[in-house]
Amino acid sequence: KSAPKGTAASFGAGDAAHSLSQGLVGYWRLDESSGNAADSSGNGYTLTNNGVTTFVGGKFANASNHNGTTQYFSTATTISGVQTVAFWVNPASTTDNYINLVSGTYINSSSGVVSATGFTSPSIYVNGVLNGSITASVWNHVAVTTNTAISASAFEAGRANGSYLGNTGKLDEARIYNRALSPAEVSTLYNWAPGPVGWWKMD
Hints:
Elements: H1 13-21, E1 24-28, E2 48-50, E3 54-57, E4 62-65, E5 72-74, E6 79-90, E7 96-102, E8 105-110, E9 113-117, E10 123-126, E11 129-130, E12 140-152, E13 156-157, E14 159-160, E15 163-164, E16 170-177, H2 183-191
Antiparallel strand pairs: 1-16, 2-5, 3-4, 4-16, 5-13, 6-12, 6-16, 7-8, 7-13, 8-9, 10-11, 10-12, 14-15
């Protein structure tokens, strides 16, 4: 029996959200107002707040706000199989420090160029663009993928290789996946936004 005419597959926001949840092993919204950062992936990787990192308005809801000298988040629990790291950052400078995974493996930038030191053949995206550049004092989406899994035994957000995210720098929506997101998925993640908390049709 032939298929009915006029039918087609439709992929909407729900499908995109489902794709972006696949392989998600750590997800920190950083929407707190104080204290530690909860893991929304369901895997329980709560990040310890070091140096009394504060929170301010972020890309979505709240974000962490750093002082450049003592403030960052960390977990003592090893996060295995990391192949994608993604986050929003609003740095005070185009030369700054973002994420640490393990000794010698970290993400930072110099004069706007993002580096993923210790990653094997990384693909680095800024605002969905491969090899894009960081801009200071605005929100930038950074995603780094690799086909070689990393065991993140010293995961830190807001510090990389012992150096801190600069004064007034902000982080939001940090994610870790145990698979390498495709370029299309990175673009989808860059364009992603949380759903509304209320909806009134006013019909």
